[in-house]
Amino acid sequence: MNTARNSAADGPSVAVVGATGAVGREMLAVLEQRAFKHREVRAFASVRSAGQKLAYRGGELVVEALTDQWPPSGGGAIDCALLSAGSGISKAMGPKMAASGTVVIDNSSAFRMTAGVPLTIPEVNPLSVAGLVRKSGGGGGAIIANPNCSTIILLMAVTPLHRAFGVERLVVSTYQAASGAGWQGMEALERETRAVLGGEAASATVFPEPYAFNLFSHNSSVDVATGRNVEEQKMIDETRKIWSELGVGLGGELGGSGVRLSATCVRVPVMRAHCESVNVTLSRETTLAEVRAVLARAAGVRMMDDRAGNSFPTPLKASGGDDVLVGRLRVDPGQLPTGVGAGVDLERVSTRGFDLFVAGDQLRKGAAQNAVQIAEMIFGGS
Amino acid sequence: MNTARNSAADGPSVAVVGATGAVGREMLAVLEQRAFKHREVRAFASVRSAGQKLAYRGGELVVEALTDQWPPSGGGAIDCALLSAGSGISKAMGPKMAASGTVVIDNSSAFRMTAGVPLTIPEVNPLSVAGLVRKSGGGGGAIIANPNCSTIILLMAVTPLHRAFGVERLVVSTYQAASGAGWQGMEALERETRAVLGGEAASATVFPEPYAFNLFSHNSSVDVATGRNVEEQKMIDETRKIWSELGVGLGGELGGSGVRLSATCVRVPVMRAHCESVNVTLSRETTLAEVRAVLARAAGVRMMDDRAGNSFPTPLKASGGDDVLVGRLRVDPGQLPTGVGAGVDLERVSTRGFDLFVAGDQLRKGAAQNAVQIAEMIFGGS
């Protein structure tokens, strides 16, 4: 079954668990595209999907059924497992995998808030996995959590500002794609849209609301006490944890209650890239020109801010790409110091409030790509 | 040509100008549905659309060509003209119509910021047209401006809070429907979506960006100096003017530079209702319970805030309805006073920051319905 493993000479052996899901397939695509050396890839999914064949680097991978045996039969130890099979599988198998010596990079929410588990965005808090680097193989297992997609996309854009100026407060409204709910979400959007265009009445099939030409508050459950849905709470909690790991004196002091962040998470009828409208209050005054300069040199960020051409980040522009797109950079007129009036040069005025608009591929940087980047940091990439 | 006028016994004679457009048709629909007494309705549009027949109250209206003659030939004086034929027509014809004794209710942006022209949302600033009330007919012409759709929908939700607590600052992100660009916008969304579902590559046809399963920064032009697009600037300027007309000591004092408002306006692939994610900072502390109580009794607002059922305002729920839907009411955790920690009762804690999510039919309350409500105030409604 060698072809099913797509073996190469050296590097770690990698398992993609949940390989037939939307994120799992993207993990394989990212592994194909990037220069991350790996000895073999094995693809795992539920018994239902076992035997399915997935194209990979000119050959094919035969999907194996994930059992509770780890390392799985039919091969040697697995150095690195990229998990995207839901929280249940992660909780059941993650600790066992780590105990066997596998470095588990988990895309679910299972361990994100667990103390001692790094929650890592390579461009943001690389030091969170500094102790785990094992370029020569060996070294024992571990669990590393991949943050939630909307957190990753937000923090790619605002962490450079946090490092440069300190971020005091964030107000975020999201425009989230169907892909956040996997194939089922994307299929629902397509199927429901076809039905409506065919003259049928809009009806909900997968999400709590009809999706065709509609949008709705994020489908995760809502905490009755706070009014926040799980997606919003994740953004708050994960931002707090990630920024507290920066280790540069930032994060912890963001107000008595931690990061001052309000999120409103909304599902829009878009296939696979999330957008976020972000209002930021910095800790100290600076200029738009300085903000622009900081973002222009931020890793993994691509500025797309053509005012004259009205050309800014969109989901389609972000889809399939590696970078988080940032644009609509503006001074927030609501936070201009009192007395600053019309006619001031908004590129040069000192202020603390700015607006921006961000787009990132939910399946790539928001999930699969970030996980593979973590693997590259640990096992040595290109 | 009596049938074309749909005559009734009394009330003003009404002209709908731009009657074949998306807003014009909705004006006729609203006139049909509401109890506003009118003697006759005449429908006007460009020469291209003249002769077209529009169903109205069991009969039909034959669309007449708008010329520069006013009052138009073939009838008597027009008491009230509802204009939605673009800024150019409004600028060219509005003053002439008003001079002839017609009360012009203009849906374009032509006169919104003109000093002395009321900019009116009946539930918000009814006193702006107090001097124009003429229930018995006669009284001379005037121009009254209908605010922009996204301004109306925002202010329906936040003005009750402004009256009760004072609003210090707003951060708004919009989710705007295709209908804001008229039939052409809705047709583009449908046509482009069919093409993509048929396997074609996404391409832009009417808007600057592809619309199928995509979203983009509002298509109005962007001011290179401020970075704001026209839609965003309208929301700022119109809010300032409308609130300054409240005449209750509010509005003018909202910071040295007027209303502290940041808007990010985004076009989403939805047909006809706009949504807005709103973060509000009040002038004084209050509780979520009080905010909820104020909104529950606000005219024209319908609360839809079912946390347990994850049921909140959506474009589809707002479409075709009269009310602005408000939900996702929450305490903004980013504005909680320092020291307020976990476990506090968020319904009862005193704070100044709140979040909400609003949906309103762009063609109805955002345009046609608001215009007809203004006519009702002036000429006497039900």
Plain-language structure description:
Two copies of one chain form a homodimer. Chain A is α/β, with parallel strands linked by helices. The first copy, chain A, folds into two domains: 3-146 and 367-379, Rossmann fold, CATH 3.40.50; 151-362, Dihydrodipicolinate Reductase, domain 2. Chain A is 27% helix and 23% strand. The first copy, chain A, is built from eight helices and 16 strands. Chain A has a six-stranded parallel sheet, sandwiched between helices. A six-stranded mixed sheet of chain A has the order 11-9-13-16-15-14. In chain A, helix 7 (315-318) links the parallel strand 14 and strand 15 (324-331). In chain A, helix 1 (22-33) crosses helix 8, helix 3 runs parallel beside helix 5 (230-244) and helix 3 crosses helix 8 (364-379). The longest helix of chain A has 17 residues, at 149-165. Chain A is globular and about 70 Å long. The first copy, chain A, starts with 12 loop residues before the first strand and ends with a helix. The relative contact order of chain A is 0.15. Residues 248-257 of chain A have low confidence and may be disordered. Chains A and B meet through strand 9, helix 4, strand 10, strand 11 and strand 13 of A and strand 9, helix 4, strand 10, strand 11 and strand 13 of B.
